[in-house]
Design brief:
heterodimer, A: 295 residues, mainly alpha, MetI-like fold, 11 helices, B: 251 residues, alpha/beta, Rossmann fold, four-stranded antiparallel beta sheet, 27% strand
């Protein structure tokens, strides 16, 4: 077989494989959208669910998902940034550092149901947090953290060594160089990764079943005092997220329109994650331009 | 000429490898001193010892003395950040910060407490003029430093180093990544700058050393083979190895 023919065959195979993947994704997305979009309405997005009757919405679940995401990120971002900066700039290369890196890798490949059970035993029971948003956020932190550490580390490693040296040679301290030279360059990468991680949090169900719980109290959207038990902002209340709701409605929903609700909620979930991804790209580019003054 | 930098019995090791072997020399003030020699001879290593950039490489051990303006810099108590303010550096690859042209130059002064807009403007202009770049960039100071040519970027890096008012400027093969015209501009610039700054340059290009420098040091395998006035070293070298190198027999 001559080289030209081999090249053509390889190209054809690669094009076919990627075409197949694109088709598969488009089909999946199309199916979810077509089934779900018909159910969209302002009412569906804002009203609480119904147990027996038709016409329930996903309002509290949507709010829970977003709130849980914010809580998780509030915990994950500072920890992840700190550990990532340490791993990239301060840790001396050696067996110990490699060991930490291995642990981080292992942590990131934990099955989420295991993280959920860990959350139930440690957070919900031993720490007595109960089924709560806080327990959910901490459980999600467990498997979001490795991602965040890796993203930060990669972001900092992607900064050209020359620029780091330029900062140091100008008399900047190590921390100042990291903070004002390296982090701005790394931020687009870190930000994009963070938003993608956020998308994962948004779609997570298994780790939340036993931590954030499968029910939501009747929320009073006029009460914004985080200490009051019916306030949407109370981090100690149980909270069913959108992904958990989809699972629950499909598994044990009694409402006559359970299938439609699940389809609608799935579409909302997918759309939100899609928005996250688009926002990640846009924001990453925007920040890069802003920090580097490029057009 | 008075010596600004005095190096005495300097040994430097990377792990087990001895990169510099008992170097002793003086670098005169307000003049250009060129380090020449084949790759791996230790010239860049010595240059980077002068602002303690070798500290960044794990496993580096240094013995002996380097005094700058009479002050020993190889002590654990040395304020390395302050040292690097006094000893500026320009690298092989132009490495402007990914910020605007203005911000690149204003960065150092701002760090050292100059915040008034007017003062900064003046300083930026002065530094860019000293680096012979002002006329080319004065109308678009807000543009990204990454958008100008390599030669301009390198002169911007010189301006950035000058903006913190150093005594010494180290140039680590600073023209080797540039085209001949940009190289010439920087060589001319160095001629100007030596009236105010002590310049130490590492170069691969012997002709450059001959054109630009007042003193030339020839390195081989971590040792100083010969150190003399540039004219003397190139016309009547006293060591056979120097002669072989400058006549192109090796290296």
């Amino acid at each position: 077989m001559n080289a030209k023919l081999a090249d053509r065959i390889a190209t054809a195979i690669i094009v076919a494989v990627s075409g197949f993947i694109v088709l598969l994704l488009a089909g999946l997305l199309g199916y979810i959208m077509v089934r779900g979009l018909g159910h969209f309405s302002y009412d569906f997005l804002t009203s609480p669910p119904e147990t027996i009757r038709a016409g329930g919405g996903i309002g509290p679940q949507l709010f829970n998902s977003i709130f849980l995401l914010v809580l998780t990120m509030l915990i994950t971002i500072p920890l992840g940034l700190g550990a990532g900066i340490y791993m990239s700039e301060y840790a001396r290369p050696g067996k110990f550092t490699d060991f930490i890196r291995l642990l981080v890798e292992v942590l990131s490949s934990f099955p989420s149901i295991v993280v959920g059970l860990f959350g139930l035993l440690v957070l919900v029971n031993a720490f007595d947090l109960g089924f709560s948003l806080l327990a959910g956020a901490l459980a999600l932190t467990v498997f979001n953290l490795p991602l965040m550490v890796r993203i930060t580390e990669q972001g900092l490693k992607s900064v050209p060594r020359e620029q780091k040296e330029a900062g140091l040679a100008l008399g900047l301290s190590k921390w100042k160089t990291i903070r004002s030279i390296m982090l701005p360059v790394a931020i687009p990468v870190i930000l994009t990764g963070t938003i993608l991680a956020a998308g994962r949090v948004f779609g997570e169900a298994a780790a939340l079943l036993f931590t954030a719980g499968m029910s939501s109290p009747r929320l009073d959207f006029t009460d914004w005092n985080p200490l009051s038990p019916f306030s949407p902002l109370n981090p100690m209340r149980p909270a069913e997220t959108l992904a958990v709701h989809i699972w629950k409605v499909n598994a044990e929903g009694l409402a006559p329109d359970a299938a439609e609700i699940a389809a609608g909620a799935s579409a909302v979930l997918v759309l939100t994650v899609l928005l996250f991804n688009l926002a990640a790209r846009w924001l990453g580019r925007f920040m890069y331009r802003k920090f580097t003054a490029t057009k | 000429m008075t010596a600004l930098i005095e190096i005495e019995n300097l040994d430097l090791y990377y792990g087990d490898f001895q990169a510099l072997k008992s170097i002793s020399m003086d670098v005169p003030e307000k003049a250009v001193t060129a380090f020449i020699g084949p790759s791996g001879c230790g010239k860049s290593t010595l240059l980077r010892s002068l602002n303690r950039m070798n500290d960044l490489i794990a496993g580096t051990r240094i013995e002996g003395s380097i005094k700058i303006a009479g002050e020993e810099i190889n002590t654990s108590g040395m304020d390395v950040e302050h040292l690097r303010k006094r000893v500026g550096m320009v690298f092989q690859q132009p490495n402007p910060f990914p910020k605007s042209i203005y911000e690149n130059v204003a960065y150092g002064p701002r760090l050292y407490g100059i915040n008034q807009r007017k003062k900064l403007d003046e300083l930026v202009e002065k530094s860019l003029r000293s680096a012979a770049l002002w006329d080319e960039v004065k109308d678009h100071l807000k543009r990204s430093a990454l958008g100008i040519s390599g030669g301009q970027q390198q002169r911007l890096c010189i301006a950035r180093a000058l903006a913190v008012n150093p005594d010494v400027l180290l140039m680590d093969e600073s023209t080797s990544a540039l085209d001949p015209i940009s190289t010439l501009k920087i060589e001319e610039l160095v001629q100007e700058l030596k009236n105010e700054y002590t310049i130490v340059m590492v170069t691969h290009n012997m002709h450059q050393a001959a054109r630009v420098s007042n003193q030339t040091v020839f390195f081989l395998n971590g040792e100083v083979v010969e150190y003399a006035d540039t004219e003397t070293l190139f016309s009547t070298p006293s060591d056979r190895r120097t002669e072989d190198y400058i006549s192109g027999r090796f290296g």
